[in-house]
Amino acid sequence: MAGIGGPGPRRPIPIGEAIAAVSGVLLFIFLFLPWLGAASRFGSSGDTAKGWTIFTLADIVLAILALGTAALAVIGFLGTNVRMPAPRTTLMKWFSVIAATIVLTTVIELSTGDPGKLFDLKVGGILAALAAIGMLVGSIIAERPELAQRFAAAGPGGTGVGAGPAAPTEPLPPAGGYAAAPPAQQAVAPPPEPAAPPAATGATTVGQVQPPPQPVAPPPPPGGAADWYPDPRGEKRLRYWDGNSWTEHTAD
After folding, report:
1. Cα–Cα dist 88/73, whole Å
2. pTM for the complete prediction?
3. What is the pLDDT along the chain (252 residues), one digit of tens a residue?
4. Which helix (H) or strand (E) holds 246?
C-alpha cells in the first residue's frame, strides 16, 4: 500500500502533466459517446455502439488507465510525495501505451477489413483515439522535461515553461528626456602598507650601497710636544706632530 507523505514544494504546472491529465479525463468521458455504427456494402443503419458497450472488460481497463494517468499527472504538478513501486512518469507512460493500443486497435480493426462487415467510425471513436494519443504524448513529455523546454523555446518570444530568464530591461529616461547620471562612487583610499621592521645593527640590505668606514685618527705621541715621531699610520718612518694633530709631513 502506498504511503502518502507531506506536500512538497509547489511548482508551475508542467506542460507534459497538463496534457496527460486533460487527455485522460477526456478519454474517460469519450467512453460514453458513440464510437461505431453498423454498416454494410449496401448502406448503413442507425444502430450505434458506445465505447462503454462494445467491450466486455477492456472498457473498465480503459477507464482505470485514463483516470489513473490523470491522477498521476495531478500528483506530479501538485508536488505531493507518494511512494510508488515505479517512477511516476514511467507509470504514466505505460498506462498511456496500453490505453492507446486498446483504442487504436479497436478503431482500426472494426472500421477496416471486409467491406461486408464494416462499421462506420463515429465521432466518439475519433475523439477517443485523439485523447489516447494525447495521453501518450503528455506522458512522454513529462518523462523528458527537455522536450517541453524545446517547445517553449520555439514558441513566440521564447518564453513559457522551461524558458530561460528574461533579459533585463534598461530603465527608461525621465520625462525631460535626459537620463539621470549614475551616482558618483566614493573613492576608497588603499590601506597603508605595513612598515618594514628596522634592520639589525651591522646588517646590510641586499642591493644597498654602504658608505666606506671613516679612518680612526691615531693617538697623539707621548708628551705631545711638536716634533718628529714614528709614523703611527705605518706609511713612512717619521710623521710630524704639530702639537695638536698629526700632519701630512713625513720623512723616510
Report:
1. 8
2. 0.52
3. 444 444 445 555 688 888 999 999 999 999 999 888 765 443 444 577 788 888 788 889 999 999 999 999 888 878 778 888 889 889 999 999 999 999 999 888 877 655 555 567 888 889 999 999 999 999 998 888 787 677 667 666 554 444 444 444 445 444 444 445 555 555 566 677 666 655 545 445 555 666 777 767 788 888 778 888 888 888 888 888 888 888 888 887
4. strand 246-251
**103/36 Cα distance (integer angstroms):** 12
Q: Please tell me what DSSP assigns to residue 172.
A: P
Please list, residue by residue across 217-245, b when 16 or more beta carbons sit within 10 angstroms of its beta carbon and e when fewer do. eeeebeeeeeeebebeeeeeeebebeeee
Sheet holding 119-121, edge to edge: 43-50, 34-40, 119-121
Helix segments in 155-251, DSSP class H: none
- Cell 464510437 belongs to 35
By CB atoms closer than 10 A (0-12, 13-18, 19+), residue 106 is buried
Question: Angle between the 123-143 and 15-30 helix axes, to the nearest 10 degrees?
Answer: 160
CA–CA distance, 165 with 44 (Å, rounded to integer):
58
